[in-house]
Amino acid sequence: MNEKKSLSFKKRLALGLHSRICENEAQIHELRNLFWECTLRCNMNCRHCGSDCKQAASTPDMPAKDFFKAIDDITPHVNPNKTFVTFTGGEALVRDDIEDVGLELYRRGFPWGLVTNGLLLDEKRLDSLLRSGMHSITVSFDGFADDHNWIRRNEKSFERTDHAVRLLTRTPDLVWDIVTCVNPRNYGRLDEFKEYLVSIGVRNWRLFSIFPMGRAADNNELQLNDSQFRGLFAFIEKVREEGRIHANYGCEGFLGQYEGRARDYYFHCRAGINVASVLVDGSISGCTSIRSNFHQGNIYKDNLWDVWQNRFQKFRDHSWTRKGQCRECDFFKYCKGSGMHLYDNNEELLFCHYHRLMGN
């Protein structure tokens, strides 16, 4: 297929307008989301873990007081009500002070949420989190028991995660979704799993393809073949057209003709634009998935707000990414070299969603 004919005139017009809006946002760089990698400890041993987390992580948890120093850095300069804090890991719920931290953020006006594998999310813990002001939660749910437990390497995972999801379906006034890591093992049962999710009351479903980093880097069992990769987006589009459950592909990668069809928004890597993260060792980055050569500072020696205002140049001006397969690509003006987490330690693009969807 000719690249120039792969997008309609209407879509190219919309993408062009979106690109100009994104350039303006990069200049303003209003901080709206702050991720806190509060621990590298985890109660699972997932095959696809990008962080290679372990039950006994060599890097200790960041003390809450250190994180609040970073919060103090930004508080005079942001509207706390419009700056969302998300706890990630590792598994955030292995910390016993999450509620204390969350309640203090709530008192300061910051809405907060977390990402979890669901293993520790029972009635008591959910009630405790809600009483501490939790606004949103994302639960990883990767298919039926055999598929989910295989990728999570835990025979109790499906049962407990399923219970956690059912708890959420009965919880009013909470923003939540589930996320599914699509791989060759669960790919063939996505439609069946969709029906199951609908039947138990799930309304919002995000799907990801597994990116080859961390433990997944050398595991070919986790990678979709080209036909499956393209089929995933056709599936998501079909589910969205049905309207029985709201499906979205994850935030990564420019999707060409599937922009606006496989998710609610056009692609834009917001790392360093609206999104920052504080990693467990104090490193400051755009999001927790980006490699260490793109770290912008460290809260133990830098003021988080100063870093946010005066660094992140490579996040806000992607001209350096116009090389390799991006050099002559007609759609670079829309994609800007794709997501920051798709670059390796040598600043080379590892994976292009668009070219794989195009079959080249």
Quickly list its features.
single chain, 360 residues, alpha/beta, ten-stranded mixed beta sheet, 13 helices, 35% helix, globular
Let me know the average pLDDT.
Answer: 93
What's the gyration radius in Å? Answer: 20 Å
User: What is the percentage of strand-forming residues?
Assistant: 5-15%
Spatially, the strands of the biggest sheet line up as 7-6-5-4-3-2-1-8-9-10
- The ordered string of helix (H) and strand (E) elements is HEHEHEHEHHEHHEHEEEEHHHH
- Measured distance between first and last alpha carbons: 10 Å
Low-confidence stretches: 1-5
Q: Give the biggest beta sheet.
A: 10 strands, mixed
Number of helices: 13
How many strands? 10
Helix and strand composition category: alpha/beta
Q: What overall geometry do the principal axes of the alpha carbons give?
A: globular
What percent of residues adopt helix (DSSP H or I)? 25-40%
Topology:
Elements: H1 9-28, E1 33-37, H2 64-74, E2 84-88, H3 98-108, E3 112-116, H4 123-131, E4 134-140, H5 145-152, H6 157-169, E5 175-182, H7 184-187, H8 190-200, E6 204-209, H9 226-242, E7 246-249, E8 275-278, E9 283-285, E10 297-298, H10 304-310, H11 313-316, H12 332-335, H13 353-358
